[in-house]
Amino acid sequence: MRHRNSGRQLSRNASHRHAMMRNMATSLLQHETIRTTVPKAKELRRVVEPLITMAKVDSIGLRRLAHSRLRDDAVVEKLFADLGPRFKARAGGYTRILKMEPRPGDNADMALMQLVDSAPVATEKKEDKKAAKAPKAEPKKTKGKKAAADESESETKPKRRKKAAG
Fold it and tell me: Is the backbone of residue 10 left (phi > 0), alpha (psi -120 to 50) or beta?
């Protein structure tokens, strides 16, 4: 009987399961998107969401607790400096699990797991593309008639390259 035993075994012993969850949590927090199986993603959600909730309040004790669970200084720094403030107003549900096509080798149900508020990065990229497409208005410079004619000629006619002697 499995009374009061929560969580999935994922066909692994306890130490392997804990190490796998630590590695997957580190990868998710570092890259903000990972591809894994659906049961692993559902189990990972139980590890990552409390860490993000913990990161909303920046204190040395909570940093030490997060470091004991993740064992990666750079990820703990990102968690408390970037992700905690980003999810400050959100009450929970920091991750999203999107189901994908089954894995070709063994037909396992695959999922894309990502942090919910990854939108600011995407909107910045869209704004950059719009800015690149729209030509910037440059102040017009007054030129003499000859300079203007030379410039218009050079824009319409392509310059020919000299053949290399050899």
Answer: left
Q: Structure tokens of 67?
A: 């470091």
What is the pTM (predicted TM-score) of this model?
0.70
CB 95 within 8 Å of CB 83: no
Which of 87, 75, 81 is CA-nearest to residue 58?
81
Which residue spans within 48-133 are E strands per DSSP? 95-99, 110-115
Residue closest to 11 by CA, chosen among 42, 34, 39: 39
- Residues with Cβ within 8 Å of 44's Cβ and at least 6 positions away in sequence, in order, are 21, 24, 25, 28, 36, 95, 113
Contact indicator for 38, 97 with CB cutoff of 8 Å: yes
Q: What is the DSSP letter of 141?
A: P
Cα–Cα separations (whole angstroms), residue 70 to 19, 78, 81: 10, 12, 15
Token pair, residue 33, equals 């998107």
End-to-end, the C-alpha distance of the chain in Å comes to 88
Over residues 81-114, the pLDDT tens digits come to 999 999 999 999 999 999 999 999 999 999 999 9
